[in-house]
Specification:
Structural class of chain A: mainly alpha
Order of helices and strands of chain B: HHEEEEEEEEEHHHHH
Oligomer: heterodimer
Shape of chain A: elongated
Low-confidence stretches of chain A: none
Number of helices of chain A: 3
Number of domains of chain B: 2
Order of helices and strands of chain A: HHH
Shape of chain B: elongated
Number of helices of chain B: 7
Radius of gyration of chain B: 28 Å
Structural class of chain B: alpha+beta
Number of strands of chain A: 0
Strand content of chain B: 15-25%
């Protein structure tokens, strides 16, 4: 279960980010020939990888705590 | 395999490839294109002055600027052309009433050719409206029903990415959204290989590698789905258009989420490893079916579906390929890097619990 939770959290975070983008920054996203769509995609990928690394980090921390 | 995953050199290679993809993929400019035209329709039998703006174009610097309106295979010449700046020009165009009957309601493409920008094109730029008698002021002798299209289609010498309507700059997402699915697929195949190895040899390490690979593949799947939804919002109009590729990808991700749930529900180590290995082998078959076969049987918004091959000259050009293939390799290698960390943590846990 501990593996699914970060997955689901990251999914919902980015869905809600995308939904917000629809309402508030639609003009920004369409400006400059949609270059900010690329920025958004890169941010989502960055956030996803960070969330996965945090999950790995917490597992390693648990392992370290047990060995002491 | 674990020995190779532990080595450091290929991680530096990964960083270099991804830096190349990020920097190059963001800095290469877009090719010249026509951004807009005004007005977007005109009544037949009137002379209309159209103003159009280009992007990255050199209307003033270029020699032999030629402008046509194109309908089907017919080219129609503009009456008068006037450049204002490099990215703005005016063109006067009129259309004889006697030729319009079959063309009313159809769209004209705008085609521009010059020696600096090459041949650029705006599809369905203007629409022909029915003739309005009050405006019939055009001197019909000045109208050229059709003129010859000089066959000097200029090839660009600059290094650019193609300028596509609707996509524009977001064509760069080819290097960031698409490789997510390539990485997911490769890592899932890797996982299946290790599941089969586990079923053959019964080595618990193989089971650990297979399960960690599914975790990383799911990360790529989630990233592929969310980046795809984000991109679709601004190109296809909504985050989840009813597209067979999207639905197939969602089902594929859910199949592998079920794998994680299945593993979580079994407490006995050997039983868990065996059942999940068998499930994994079946899952890759269903996943392939939903991702690659079903979308090809129907129409899809994605390129490379509905019967037409992907990687055609319309989807990819040689400049995109120069970044796309390294991007696929780079993101896959990043996946294996993250995978190796997970496997090593799991192996440490295993070692400690068996002591």
């Amino acid at each position: 279960m501990s593996k699914i939770i970060p997955f689901i959290i990251s999914l919902f975070l980015s869905i809600s980010a995308a939904a917000q983008g629809e309402q508030t920054s639609s003009n920004l996203m369409r400006s400059n020939l949609k270059i900010y769509v690329v920025v958004g995609v890169l941010l989502i990928i960055f956030a996803g990888i960070i969330v996965y690394l945090l999950a790995l980090d917490s597992r390693l921390k648990k392992l370290e705590d047990n060995s002491n | 395999m674990i020995e190779i995953l532990k080595k450091t050199w290929w991680k530096y290679v990964t960083v270099l490839i991804l830096l190349y993809v990020l920097i190059g993929g963001l800095l290469v400019p877009l090719a010249p294109g026509i951004a807009s035209i005004y007005p977007i329709n005109f009544a037949s039998d009137t002379a209309v002055e159209f103003t159009f703006t280009g992007y990255n174009t050199h209307f003033q610097d270029a020699k032999d600027l030629q402008i046509w309106f194109k309908n089907g295979t017919e080219f129609y010449c503009a009456d008068k052309t006037e450049t204002i700046t490099n990215e703005k020009a005016k063109v006067t165009f009129s259309f004889p009433f006697r030729n319009t009957q079959k063309l009313i309601g159809t769209n004209f493409d705008l085609v521009i050719n010059d020696n600096q920008d090459g041949t650029i094109h705006l599809g369905d730029a203007v629409t022909v409206l029915p003739h309005q008698p009050a405006d019939s002021t055009t001197d019909s002798s000045a109208l050229k029903p059709s003129c010859e299209h000089a066959a000097s289609i200029t090839k660009l010498s600059h290094f650019t990415f193609p300028y596509r309507e609707i996509l524009y700059q977001s064509i760069r997402n080819t290097f960031y959204h698409v490789p997510m699915w390539f990485a997911m697929m490769l890592i899932l195949i890797f996982s299946t290989v290790y599941s089969i190895r586990y079923l053959n040899k019964g080595n618990i390490e193989d089971d650990i590698i297979a399960s960690q690979a599914v975790n990383v593949a799911l990360m790529f799947g989630a990233l592929g789905l969310t980046t795809g939804m984000f991109w679709a919002t601004y190109t296809w109009g909504k985050p989840w258009p009813n597209d067979p590729k999207l639905n197939g990808a969602a089902v594929g991700v859910i199949i592998y989420l079920a794998y994680i749930v299945l593993r979580g529900s079994l407490t006995d180590e050997i039983k868990r490893a065996k059942i999940s290995a068998v499930y994994n082998v079946f899952a890759i078959v269903i996943f392939t079916l939903f991702i690659f076969i079903i979308p090809r049987l129907t129409d899809s918004l994605h390129p490379g579906n509905g019967g037409n091959p992907a990687f055609s000259k319309y989807d990819m050009d040689s400049h995109l390929r120069l970044f796309f293939y390294p991007a696929v390799i780079g993101w896959c290698m990043l996946g294996f890097w993250v995978l190796s960390i997970g496997v090593r943590i799991k192996l440490l846990e295993l070692k400690k619990s068996s002591k």
